[in-house]
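User: Before I run my own analysis I want an independent prediction to cross-check against. Here's the chain; please return only the structure tokens and, at the end, one sentence I can use as a sanity check.
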Amino acid sequence: MELSVVQWVVVLFVFTFVIGILAPIGGVGGGVLFVPLAAAFFPFSIDFVRGAGLIMALTSSLSSTPYLIRKGLSNLKIMIPAVVVSNITAIIGSIAGLWVTNTFPTGESYIIIALGGILLVIFVFMLASRQIEFPQIKKIDTLSQRLKLDGRWYEPSSKEIYEYATTNLPLGLLMFSLVGFVAGMFGLGAGWASVPVLNLVMGAPIKVAVATSMAIITVNTSSASWVYLAKGAILPLICIPSIMGMSIGARVGAKLAAAAKPLIIKYLVMFIMLLAAVLDIVKGIHGLHVL
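Assistant: Structure tokens:
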């Protein structure tokens, strides 16, 4: 059944409103849910979907990050070195993503399947880890100490103030360079990978990792989206109602993220990882069969 323009506007608004609520709680930009779902169920070109995915990620992060910073959850001292490297690779990834689409008909399907496999590996690591809510750090590297990548926040669920530190900054920056490239290539916003890097590699508590991930997305996604805009892959019919739904939903989600218990956030992040992995693998296999 074909939908009218007004019906598409309503469908996209409701769809992105729900994603907007989930995005800040899970620390993802929204693109990681929007891209695979929209590509699977909506009759839009993949380039338009990826371009809209970056806009969705940018909208949700800009709507929720100021609130998370005020609550002391988004750590700007961690965000700044991370975006220095990932911002550059996000631009390169955007260019590479559009080039792959126009050059290799089956190349994108194989890469999407590989991306789903990576997400499954991350899900298994998070499932096996018992300390992702409050990781135990045995040793802090010299660079992290000099930059003082630590912080504190008030946890309303337990009515306590938690102090934390982070480590492994050199390894974290290397991984963030890869995260930026993949995010730009697929229009996913990078929250799906930023949270595990911050939490499992650098030792940030899960709530801090989620909130800081949203701050990182504000910079990375804005740079990558300009490439899609310059190539004409930003379609107003998709983006305008989606921005409205995402913006309102993200404001609601930010308040829920600040009040939610760390354990709840842990399971929601894991669910999003698993869902995105399955959707990516199914989408990639379907793309191979179609071609």
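Sanity check: Residues 5-290 form one domain.
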